[in-house]
Amino acid sequence: MKKLTIISSVILSSLLILTGCGSNSSKKSNVTSKVKVVKQSSSKKSQKGVAKKKSGSLWNNDKDSHLEDFMKQWGEVMNQTYTKYDGTNNIQTASGMNYPQDFNSATVNGQNISMAWDKKGTGKNDYNVVAIYNYNKSSSSSITYAFTLADGEPIVLVNEGSGNNWSETKNKSLRENFVNIFDGKATHVEKPKVSSSSSTQSSGDGEGYVTTPEAMRGTWYSKGEDGMKKLVISEHEITLISADGETNHAVLYKRTKDTPSDVSESERQSKEEWRSAGNIGANGISMRGWYQLQGGGEHFFTHEEEINGQKVPLVLYGFGANDLTDYVYYPSEDLANQQSDAKYDDINYKF
Questions:
Q1: Helix, strand, or coil here: 159?
Q2: Taking the model in full, what pTM does it have?
Q3: Measured between alpha carbons, how far is 284 from 143 in angstroms, rounded to an integer?
Q4: How far apart are CA 89 and CA 141, in angstroms?
Q5: Are residues 303 and 347 in contact, defined by beta-carbon separation less than 8 angstroms?
Q6: pLDDT of 248-304, one tens digit each?
Q7: More confident residue, 180 or 207
Q8: Nearest of 192, 175, 156 to residue 78 by alpha carbon
Q9: In the chain, how many H helices and how many E strands?
Q10: How far apart (Å, rounded) are the C-alpha atoms in residues 264 and 206?
Q11: Do the strands 127-136 and 142-150 form a parallel or antiparallel pair, or are they unpaired?
Protein backbone atom coordinates (compact mmCIF):
# COMPACT_ATOMS: atom_id res chain seq x y z
CA MET A 1 0.00 0.00 0.00
CA LYS A 2 2.89 2.28 0.93
CA LYS A 3 4.58 1.46 -2.40
CA LEU A 4 1.42 2.44 -4.30
CA THR A 5 1.18 5.72 -2.45
CA ILE A 6 4.82 6.61 -3.20
CA ILE A 7 4.42 5.78 -6.90
CA SER A 8 1.27 7.95 -7.13
CA SER A 9 3.12 10.87 -5.51
CA VAL A 10 6.00 10.56 -7.95
CA ILE A 11 3.63 10.50 -10.94
CA LEU A 12 1.71 13.53 -9.63
CA SER A 13 4.92 15.48 -9.03
CA SER A 14 6.15 14.73 -12.53
CA LEU A 15 2.89 15.95 -14.04
CA LEU A 16 3.09 19.19 -12.07
CA ILE A 17 6.70 19.78 -13.17
CA LEU A 18 5.81 19.15 -16.83
CA THR A 19 2.80 21.49 -16.60
CA GLY A 20 4.98 24.22 -15.08
CA CYS A 21 7.56 23.88 -17.84
CA GLY A 22 4.88 24.17 -20.49
CA SER A 23 3.55 27.33 -18.86
CA ASN A 24 7.01 28.98 -18.72
CA SER A 25 7.67 28.04 -22.32
CA SER A 26 4.42 29.69 -23.39
CA LYS A 27 5.28 32.92 -21.52
CA LYS A 28 8.73 33.11 -23.15
CA SER A 29 7.20 32.65 -26.58
CA ASN A 30 4.78 35.52 -26.00
CA VAL A 31 7.56 37.90 -24.88
CA THR A 32 9.67 37.04 -27.90
CA SER A 33 6.72 37.69 -30.20
CA LYS A 34 6.06 41.14 -28.67
CA VAL A 35 9.70 42.19 -29.09
CA LYS A 36 9.59 41.27 -32.75
CA VAL A 37 6.43 43.34 -33.31
CA VAL A 38 8.01 46.39 -31.67
CA LYS A 39 11.13 46.07 -33.84
CA GLN A 40 9.08 45.80 -36.99
CA SER A 41 7.03 48.88 -36.09
CA SER A 42 10.17 50.86 -35.25
CA SER A 43 11.83 50.00 -38.55
CA LYS A 44 8.80 51.20 -40.50
CA LYS A 45 8.82 54.56 -38.72
CA SER A 46 12.51 55.08 -39.39
CA GLN A 47 12.50 53.93 -43.00
CA LYS A 48 12.74 57.49 -44.32
CA GLY A 49 15.55 58.35 -41.90
CA VAL A 50 17.48 55.22 -42.85
CA ALA A 51 17.19 56.12 -46.52
CA LYS A 52 18.68 59.56 -45.81
CA LYS A 53 21.53 58.06 -43.78
CA LYS A 54 22.38 55.68 -46.62
CA SER A 55 22.75 58.63 -48.98
CA GLY A 56 25.08 60.27 -46.46
CA SER A 57 23.70 63.79 -46.95
CA LEU A 58 20.65 65.95 -47.59
CA TRP A 59 22.50 67.92 -50.28
CA ASN A 60 24.63 66.52 -53.10
CA ASN A 61 26.49 67.49 -56.28
CA ASP A 62 23.48 66.94 -58.55
CA LYS A 63 21.32 69.31 -56.50
CA ASP A 64 24.17 71.82 -56.33
CA SER A 65 24.60 71.78 -60.12
CA HIS A 66 20.85 72.17 -60.57
CA LEU A 67 20.88 75.21 -58.26
CA GLU A 68 23.85 76.71 -60.14
CA ASP A 69 21.99 76.42 -63.46
CA PHE A 70 18.90 77.99 -61.94
CA MET A 71 20.84 80.93 -60.43
CA LYS A 72 22.41 81.69 -63.83
CA GLN A 73 18.98 81.84 -65.45
CA TRP A 74 17.43 83.76 -62.57
CA GLY A 75 20.32 86.25 -62.52
CA GLU A 76 19.88 86.93 -66.24
CA VAL A 77 16.18 87.66 -65.74
CA MET A 78 17.00 89.97 -62.81
CA ASN A 79 19.88 91.57 -64.77
CA GLN A 80 22.26 90.55 -61.98
CA THR A 81 25.45 88.46 -62.12
CA TYR A 82 26.00 86.21 -59.10
CA THR A 83 29.28 84.73 -57.89
CA LYS A 84 29.10 81.28 -56.32
CA TYR A 85 31.14 80.23 -53.27
CA ASP A 86 33.60 77.58 -54.52
CA GLY A 87 33.87 75.72 -51.22
CA THR A 88 37.40 76.97 -50.52
CA ASN A 89 37.91 80.72 -50.93
CA ASN A 90 35.76 83.18 -48.97
CA ILE A 91 33.37 85.34 -50.98
CA GLN A 92 34.24 88.98 -50.30
CA THR A 93 31.15 91.14 -50.63
CA ALA A 94 31.23 94.81 -51.60
CA SER A 95 29.54 95.63 -48.29
CA GLY A 96 32.60 94.31 -46.45
CA MET A 97 31.72 90.77 -45.37
CA ASN A 98 33.61 87.49 -45.96
CA TYR A 99 31.50 84.34 -46.29
CA PRO A 100 31.37 81.68 -44.99
CA GLN A 101 33.91 82.98 -42.46
CA ASP A 102 31.57 85.67 -41.07
CA PHE A 103 28.66 83.29 -40.54
CA ASN A 104 30.03 82.80 -37.01
CA SER A 105 28.78 86.29 -36.07
CA ALA A 106 25.58 86.35 -38.17
CA THR A 107 22.09 87.08 -36.86
CA VAL A 108 18.70 86.30 -38.42
CA ASN A 109 15.98 88.90 -37.92
CA GLY A 110 18.17 90.37 -35.21
CA GLN A 111 18.30 87.10 -33.24
CA ASN A 112 21.49 85.24 -32.31
CA ILE A 113 21.64 81.90 -34.15
CA SER A 114 24.19 79.31 -35.26
CA MET A 115 24.93 79.44 -38.98
CA ALA A 116 27.77 77.68 -40.80
CA TRP A 117 28.89 76.23 -44.13
CA ASP A 118 27.86 72.56 -44.33
CA LYS A 119 28.20 70.95 -47.76
CA LYS A 120 25.98 67.97 -46.86
CA GLY A 121 23.37 69.96 -44.95
CA THR A 122 23.31 67.53 -42.04
CA GLY A 123 25.02 69.64 -39.35
CA LYS A 124 23.61 70.66 -35.99
CA ASN A 125 23.48 74.38 -36.74
CA ASP A 126 20.24 76.35 -36.80
CA TYR A 127 21.06 77.04 -40.46
CA ASN A 128 23.34 74.65 -42.42
CA VAL A 129 24.48 76.59 -45.49
CA VAL A 130 24.84 74.42 -48.61
CA ALA A 131 25.34 77.20 -51.20
CA ILE A 132 26.27 80.91 -51.21
CA TYR A 133 25.69 83.39 -54.06
CA ASN A 134 26.71 87.06 -54.05
CA TYR A 135 26.00 90.01 -56.36
CA ASN A 136 27.90 93.29 -55.90
CA LYS A 137 25.51 96.08 -56.90
CA SER A 138 28.18 98.77 -56.53
CA SER A 139 31.58 99.30 -54.94
CA SER A 140 29.97 99.38 -51.49
CA SER A 141 26.67 97.44 -51.69
CA SER A 142 25.81 93.81 -52.35
CA ILE A 143 23.08 91.16 -52.23
CA THR A 144 24.09 87.82 -50.73
CA TYR A 145 21.92 84.69 -50.66
CA ALA A 146 22.58 81.74 -48.37
CA PHE A 147 20.75 78.56 -49.37
CA THR A 148 20.30 76.68 -46.13
CA LEU A 149 18.79 73.58 -44.57
CA ALA A 150 17.22 74.29 -41.18
CA ASP A 151 16.28 71.05 -39.43
CA GLY A 152 16.11 69.48 -42.89
CA GLU A 153 13.88 72.22 -44.34
CA PRO A 154 15.12 74.29 -47.33
CA ILE A 155 15.23 78.03 -46.47
CA VAL A 156 16.78 80.89 -48.48
CA LEU A 157 18.29 83.69 -46.39
CA VAL A 158 19.32 87.09 -47.79
CA ASN A 159 21.65 89.83 -46.57
CA GLU A 160 21.32 93.13 -48.38
CA GLY A 161 22.42 95.54 -45.66
CA SER A 162 25.79 96.81 -44.53
CA GLY A 163 25.92 94.53 -41.48
CA ASN A 164 25.65 90.79 -40.87
CA ASN A 165 21.91 90.47 -40.21
CA TRP A 166 19.98 88.03 -42.42
CA SER A 167 16.31 87.44 -43.12
CA GLU A 168 14.31 84.89 -45.10
CA THR A 169 13.93 86.08 -48.68
CA LYS A 170 10.53 87.32 -49.78
CA ASN A 171 11.30 86.40 -53.39
CA LYS A 172 8.74 83.75 -54.30
CA SER A 173 10.74 82.37 -57.23
CA LEU A 174 13.84 81.74 -55.11
CA ARG A 175 11.87 80.14 -52.28
CA GLU A 176 9.78 77.80 -54.45
CA ASN A 177 12.57 76.76 -56.82
CA PHE A 178 14.99 75.97 -53.98
CA VAL A 179 12.33 73.66 -52.52
CA ASN A 180 11.89 72.07 -55.96
CA ILE A 181 15.64 71.50 -56.31
CA PHE A 182 15.82 70.00 -52.82
CA ASP A 183 12.92 67.65 -53.67
CA GLY A 184 14.43 66.69 -57.05
CA LYS A 185 11.77 68.50 -59.09
CA ALA A 186 12.04 70.76 -62.12
CA THR A 187 12.59 74.52 -61.78
CA HIS A 188 10.97 77.35 -63.69
CA VAL A 189 12.24 80.92 -64.10
CA GLU A 190 9.60 83.55 -64.79
CA LYS A 191 10.17 87.10 -65.89
CA PRO A 192 8.89 89.73 -63.44
CA LYS A 193 5.20 90.35 -63.94
CA VAL A 194 4.06 93.80 -64.97
CA SER A 195 0.95 95.08 -63.18
CA SER A 196 -2.07 96.36 -65.06
CA SER A 197 -1.27 99.90 -63.94
CA SER A 198 2.20 99.81 -65.49
CA SER A 199 0.71 98.93 -68.86
CA THR A 200 -0.81 102.43 -68.92
CA GLN A 201 2.63 104.03 -69.24
CA SER A 202 1.80 104.99 -72.81
CA SER A 203 3.52 108.36 -72.42
CA GLY A 204 6.90 106.61 -72.22
CA ASP A 205 7.94 108.65 -69.15
CA GLY A 206 8.46 105.59 -66.95
CA GLU A 207 10.67 102.53 -67.20
CA GLY A 208 9.65 99.58 -65.05
CA TYR A 209 9.60 99.21 -61.31
CA VAL A 210 11.99 100.39 -58.62
CA THR A 211 12.84 97.50 -56.28
CA THR A 212 12.96 97.91 -52.52
CA PRO A 213 15.86 96.46 -50.46
CA GLU A 214 14.92 92.93 -49.32
CA ALA A 215 15.75 93.72 -45.69
CA MET A 216 13.06 96.41 -45.79
CA ARG A 217 10.22 94.15 -46.91
CA GLY A 218 7.55 93.00 -44.51
CA THR A 219 5.07 94.55 -42.08
CA TRP A 220 6.32 97.15 -39.59
CA TYR A 221 4.73 99.01 -36.65
CA SER A 222 5.17 102.41 -35.01
CA LYS A 223 3.38 103.54 -31.83
CA GLY A 224 2.77 107.24 -31.25
CA GLU A 225 0.38 109.52 -29.39
CA ASP A 226 -2.21 108.99 -32.11
CA GLY A 227 -2.05 105.18 -31.85
CA MET A 228 -0.45 102.31 -33.78
CA LYS A 229 0.63 102.99 -37.37
CA LYS A 230 1.49 100.25 -39.84
CA LEU A 231 3.91 100.11 -42.78
CA VAL A 232 3.74 97.32 -45.39
CA ILE A 233 6.59 97.03 -47.90
CA SER A 234 6.75 94.53 -50.75
CA GLU A 235 9.10 94.24 -53.72
CA HIS A 236 7.69 97.23 -55.65
CA GLU A 237 4.99 98.70 -53.40
CA ILE A 238 4.73 100.60 -50.11
CA THR A 239 1.56 101.05 -48.06
CA LEU A 240 1.27 103.42 -45.10
CA ILE A 241 -1.69 102.80 -42.78
CA SER A 242 -2.47 105.48 -40.20
CA ALA A 243 -3.68 104.82 -36.65
CA ASP A 244 -7.28 105.51 -37.73
CA GLY A 245 -7.05 103.11 -40.70
CA GLU A 246 -6.45 105.60 -43.52
CA THR A 247 -4.41 103.90 -46.27
CA ASN A 248 -1.84 105.51 -48.55
CA HIS A 249 -0.73 103.03 -51.22
CA ALA A 250 2.22 103.62 -53.55
CA VAL A 251 3.59 101.68 -56.53
CA LEU A 252 7.25 102.47 -57.21
CA TYR A 253 8.29 103.35 -60.77
CA LYS A 254 11.45 104.76 -62.29
CA ARG A 255 10.87 108.10 -64.08
CA THR A 256 12.99 108.55 -67.22
CA LYS A 257 11.73 111.98 -68.38
CA ASP A 258 11.18 115.34 -66.75
CA THR A 259 7.89 115.77 -64.91
CA PRO A 260 5.39 117.62 -67.13
CA SER A 261 3.57 120.66 -65.72
CA ASP A 262 0.51 120.59 -67.97
CA VAL A 263 -1.28 117.41 -66.93
CA SER A 264 -5.04 116.95 -66.93
CA GLU A 265 -6.91 116.13 -63.75
CA SER A 266 -8.06 112.81 -65.16
CA GLU A 267 -4.46 111.88 -65.95
CA ARG A 268 -3.39 112.77 -62.42
CA GLN A 269 -6.13 110.63 -60.96
CA SER A 270 -5.22 107.67 -63.21
CA LYS A 271 -1.75 107.68 -61.63
CA GLU A 272 -2.73 108.59 -58.11
CA GLU A 273 -0.88 105.58 -56.66
CA TRP A 274 2.20 105.95 -58.84
CA ARG A 275 5.40 107.23 -57.25
CA SER A 276 8.60 108.39 -58.89
CA ALA A 277 11.08 106.42 -56.80
CA GLY A 278 14.79 105.78 -56.50
CA ASN A 279 17.21 103.83 -54.33
CA ILE A 280 19.26 105.72 -51.73
CA GLY A 281 22.41 103.65 -51.46
CA ALA A 282 21.96 99.98 -50.57
CA ASN A 283 19.41 100.39 -47.81
CA GLY A 284 17.05 103.20 -48.69
CA ILE A 285 14.17 104.27 -50.95
CA SER A 286 12.90 107.77 -51.75
CA MET A 287 9.65 108.60 -53.54
CA ARG A 288 7.62 111.57 -54.77
CA GLY A 289 4.21 111.89 -56.40
CA TRP A 290 4.34 110.91 -60.06
CA TYR A 291 3.40 114.43 -61.18
CA GLN A 292 4.78 116.26 -58.13
CA LEU A 293 6.70 119.41 -59.08
CA GLN A 294 7.35 121.06 -55.72
CA GLY A 295 7.89 120.06 -52.12
CA GLY A 296 9.86 117.27 -50.54
CA GLY A 297 9.20 113.58 -50.91
CA GLU A 298 9.23 110.60 -48.57
CA HIS A 299 12.15 108.36 -47.64
CA PHE A 300 12.64 104.98 -45.97
CA PHE A 301 15.86 103.51 -44.56
CA THR A 302 16.70 100.15 -43.03
CA HIS A 303 18.41 100.47 -39.66
CA GLU A 304 19.53 98.29 -36.77
CA GLU A 305 19.49 98.89 -33.01
CA GLU A 306 20.40 96.78 -30.00
CA ILE A 307 17.29 96.33 -27.86
CA ASN A 308 17.30 94.21 -24.71
CA GLY A 309 20.64 92.74 -25.74
CA GLN A 310 19.44 91.75 -29.22
CA LYS A 311 20.08 93.36 -32.61
CA VAL A 312 16.70 94.37 -34.05
CA PRO A 313 16.04 95.52 -37.65
CA LEU A 314 14.06 98.76 -38.00
CA VAL A 315 12.70 100.97 -40.79
CA LEU A 316 13.11 104.74 -40.46
CA TYR A 317 10.52 106.93 -42.21
CA GLY A 318 10.60 110.64 -42.92
CA PHE A 319 9.04 113.20 -45.24
CA GLY A 320 10.30 116.53 -46.48
CA ALA A 321 13.41 117.84 -48.19
CA ASN A 322 15.91 116.25 -45.81
CA ASP A 323 16.73 112.77 -44.50
CA LEU A 324 15.50 113.34 -40.94
CA THR A 325 13.36 110.66 -39.28
CA ASP A 326 9.72 111.26 -38.35
CA TYR A 327 8.80 107.71 -37.32
CA VAL A 328 10.66 104.55 -36.31
CA TYR A 329 8.98 101.31 -37.37
CA TYR A 330 9.53 98.00 -35.53
CA PRO A 331 9.06 94.39 -36.75
CA SER A 332 6.29 93.66 -34.21
CA GLU A 333 3.48 95.45 -32.37
CA ASP A 334 4.89 94.34 -29.01
CA LEU A 335 8.24 96.01 -29.70
CA ALA A 336 6.52 99.14 -31.02
CA ASN A 337 4.55 99.38 -27.77
CA GLN A 338 7.59 98.72 -25.58
CA GLN A 339 9.80 101.23 -27.40
CA SER A 340 7.21 103.94 -28.11
CA ASP A 341 9.13 106.55 -26.07
CA ALA A 342 12.64 105.40 -27.01
CA LYS A 343 15.16 107.73 -28.65
CA TYR A 344 18.37 106.40 -30.20
CA ASP A 345 21.60 108.41 -30.36
CA ASP A 346 22.46 107.32 -33.90
CA ILE A 347 19.14 108.42 -35.47
CA ASN A 348 18.60 111.99 -36.67
CA TYR A 349 15.07 112.87 -35.59
CA LYS A 350 13.08 115.73 -37.02
CA PHE A 351 11.60 116.58 -33.62
A1: strand
A2: 0.49
A3: 14
A4: 20
A5: yes
A6: 889 899 988 888 888 888 888 888 889 999 998 889 999 999 999 888 899 999 999
A7: 180
A8: 192
A9: 6, 20
A10: 18
A11: antiparallel
